[in-house]
Amino acid sequence: MYPIISGSYAMRGTIQEPHLVNCREFSVTPLEDQALAAIIMDCDGQTSVRELASRYEISIDDLLAFLNKFESAGMIDFSPQQIRRRPFVALGQQSPWLREVHIDITNRCNLARWCRHCFRGDKLNRSQDVQTADWLRVIEDLSAMGSYSVAFSGGEPTLRRDLPQLVECVLKHKMFFGALFTNGFVWSKNMDAILSMLAESGSKTTLYVSLDGPTAKLHDANRGPGAYQKTVAFIKRLVAFRERCDAKYRLTVNSQVTAENMHTLLSWYDDLKKLDIDRWRITSGRVTGRLAENTGLLPSWDELFVEYEKLICQHIADYRSGPTMLLNMESFFNTSMLNNGYALTFSPVISICDYKEQACSIEPNGDVQFCTSWGSRNFGNVFSTGIRDIWHSDSLQTLKQMKVGQITECQNCDLLQFCGGGCRLVPGDVTKKDPTSCERYRRFVDIILPLLQAAGISFYNERSLP
Amino acid sequence: MKKLAARMRSFRVRTLKLQKRTHASVDMDQD
Known about the structure:
Domain Radical SAM core (chain A): 95-323
Number of strands of chain A: 18
Protein name (chain A): Radical SAM core domain-containing protein
Keywords (chain A): Iron, Iron-sulfur, Metal-binding, S-adenosyl-L-methionine
Strand content of chain B: under 5%
Radius of gyration of chain A: 23 Å
Pfam families (chain A): Radical_SAM (PF04055), SPASM (PF13186)
Oligomer: heterodimer
GO molecular function (chain A): catalytic activity; iron-sulfur cluster binding; metal ion binding
Order of helices and strands of chain B: H
């Protein structure tokens, strides 16, 4: 018998922190013991169980019992003959692991003169896109350093004619193509090519489509005449293609909640359920870019949370009555909290934005940022310095590893366990409080938290987890 | 350190869950 890492898995991470990762969906299995990881890496379809046992001086029974644990999880296959397929192993030389990267592959946007909330503001359509070969090299560099998940956004990423080539490169390197963000305004040949690739690969990529309201009047006010009709048709086409081709991609509608649309949330939610999408993601956003100029769009916190309260109640009722569309509300609620029955809070030793501790984003010109929101700080350019050196630089890692307890202004605040300090971009000084987070989480604790607790969700930090 | 065979026997395949915190990324929709 010849064991081999399954075709839908790869070994990624760093030499110090190797992981078996699923190339089709976000799933990461750490192999904390490097000697054990070495055995898995040697499951290459060329080496028999007997040879492996001899190489590591262990009994065949022990080896088989060990490998069977991976086989039952779908991570290792056994072949009766030697097989030629090589398992994919890519480990970075140095920890920490850069697990996820969000790349804004273009600065071009076909709706640049519209969206009044766009965080890129007037930066769009101001510069030439970088060449295909340059992005391909970045993807290859990421693969070589063991990175796992890649997302594409922009600008409007579907405007790049080479988008299928970039997606193909991610899939070819057995990374997970995590997400594509689009305004869903134009269905180009690109979309057909990408969806075919996703269908063929079985990738559970999330396609995010932006919608700014449940009516043409609301959406078109922000995206231009006819946009609503086009985008809804775009979403329906994605749904139809998925069904026809048995593709596995996920569909999320992405919405900015504003003063104009917040009173429609309940009826909007009902409309979206009929579209057969997987998830609705709503946020009032960071006040940057155009939103900082169009402050009339900002909802009042009190009015917004009245609407959020109604929506959460409806969503919990739907959840209890059977499978339903999933919901992400701001950064504080996700349907999986209901699935899990618990959510984690923060303690002082948790990293700020711990969900981005192993991630960064790359701007259309190659500048590396802490995340897509933190546009005012550049840690170096991938085309001149290279992603490896930037990722491991002191300036970026100092921030990535900053702890919630270091936000000195928030140390005695009761909200800190829930907000984790909010966004470190907002205050300018990373040790100061984020006032927008204070507004949001005070109402979260007063209004949303009791609803979630009544729905059976418990709140723990790692120390108090039962 | 335990011998390799003992570590193999006690090893459990543990897939990391992305922890949902009360301040999490709105991109975290891998359930």
